[in-house]
Specification:
heterodimer; A: seven-stranded mixed beta sheet; four-stranded antiparallel beta sheet; B: mainly beta; six-stranded mixed beta sheet; three-stranded antiparallel beta sheet; 9 strands; globular
């Protein structure tokens, strides 16, 4: 079955770059589905970061666009996220998810908590 | 401030029925599929149901979704204590080209 597993450092210093990986299993990421990053700040709701298709089509939340890079590594079957110049406001649980129809996320990882602190 | 508007909380007794509303605009709910997610305490969200007839295996038909114009509703019949969770609506905004979510509704089964 489809499984997604996020990984990365749990602590990042302010102004540095947050880098996360999502290992995908159960299907090949070049088979046609968009993969996305979504985050949830402590006690808050869900915020879409962006998504990518193996064709190269990419969407990014305008509020984060200048700081976000999303990429795929088809050889490793995984998804990556880079978020530059982080601040405390970027402290959140970061989820990767597979999209079906636009805006419908059928499969989610369990999430990884990233704290931004010196 | 979430793009979609949900009530912060709803409550009902076991066995009763409850609905959770989700309000948006013509550029999101009015133009795209609406999905609902359930999040148990300490867990990640998972898809509950969407109005493109997507219902993951294991989700009972006690859960239903409806949409009218720029609003959507999640219906839950025969409430069980295990239904206590946070529920989020989501959709795609064709003007912003982003996925948008509601702020979440905490369901309490009294």
């Amino acid at each position: 079955q489809v499984q997604l597993q996020e990984s990365g450092p749990g602590l990042v210093k302010p102004s540095e770059t947050l880098s996360l990986t999502c290992a995908v299993s159960g299907y090949s990421i070049d088979s046609g589905y968009y993969l996305a990053w979504i985050r949830q700040s402590p006690g808050k709701g869900l915020e879409y970061i962006g998504s990518i298709h193996h064709s190269g089509s990419t969407y990014r939340n305008p509020s984060l666009q200048s700081r976000v890079t999303i990429s795929l590594d088809t050889s490793k079957n995984h998804l990556s996220l880079r978020l530059t110049s982080v601040t405390a406001a970027d402290t959140a649980v970061y989820y990767c998810a597979r999209r079906g129809q636009p805006g419908v996320f059928n499969f989610w990882g369990q999430g990884t908590l990233v704290a931004v602190s010196s | 401030q979430s793009v979609l508007t949900q009530p912060p909380s709803v409550s009902a007794a076991p066995g009763q029925n409850v609905t959770i509303s989700c309000s948006g605009t013509t550029s999101n709910i009015g133009s795209s599929y609406v999905s609902w997610y359930v999040q148990l305490p300490g867990r990640g969200p998972r898809l509950l149901i969407s109005d493109d007839d997507e219902r993951p295996s294991g989700i009972p038909d006690r859960f239903s979704v409806s949409k009218s114009g720029t609003s959507a509703t999640l219906g839950i019949t025969g409430l069980q204590t295990g239904d206590e969770a946070d529920y989020y609506c989501g959709t795609w905004d064709i003007r912003l080209s982003v996925a948008v979510f509601g702020g979440g509704t905490k369901l309490t089964v009294l």
